[in-house]
Design brief:
Elements lengths: L2 E5 L1 H9 L5 H10 L3 E6 H11 L5 H14 L1 E3 L3 H9 L5 H13 L3 E3 L12 E3 L1 H9 L4
Parallel strand pairs: 1-2, 1-4, 2-3, 4-5
Helix pairs in contact: 1-2, 1-3, 2-7, 5-6
Length: about 140
């Protein structure tokens, strides 16, 4: 059985816009080649499209989103996830939504570059850089 990893929207944004010198892109490529189940929520797809529409060509965005849809599992946000996020101790509502989506997926790890926003998480949380340094540095 493979490990379930929830990927926060900011990791995809970092990868697409190369905001972290290729760390997130390397991470996603590595994870795609391993025996892990990757999850994100449906709002992430919308946010990725919205946030990259001015900096990335339309056809490139569509191609990347279709790849994400083919390779990863989508957790749908519903009333229960929204209520849980609203009732939680998360300071950032969107991160609360991400967290409860990860819970719904049964994720064992959340990868985000906003690690401090997940201090209330009972799921292990790592940044892309921490993951790369911990798991990928010994491979190459």
């Amino acid at each position: 059985m493979s490990i379930k990893i929830f990927i926060d929207t900011n990791i995809y944004m970092n990868s697409i816009e190369n905001r972290d010198n290729g760390v997130s892109k390397s991470l996603l490529i590595f994870l795609k080649q391993t025996d892990v189940a990757l999850y994100l929520n449906d709002l992430s797809i919308l946010n990725i499209h919205y946030l990259t529409r001015k900096s990335t060509h339309r056809d490139e965005i569509k191609k990347r989103l279709k790849t994400i849809l083919e390779e990863q599992n989508i957790v749908s946000i519903d009333k229960f996830i929204i209520e849980a996020a609203l009732d939680s101790d998360f300071n950032d509502f969107e991160d609360g939504v991400q967290y409860f989506c990860a819970k719904r997926a049964g994720a064992e790890l959340i990868i985000t570059d906003n690690k401090n926003d997940f201090v209330n998480s009972d799921i292990k949380v790592m940044t892309a850089k921490e993951f790369v340094q911990t798991y990928m540095s010994s491979i190459g």
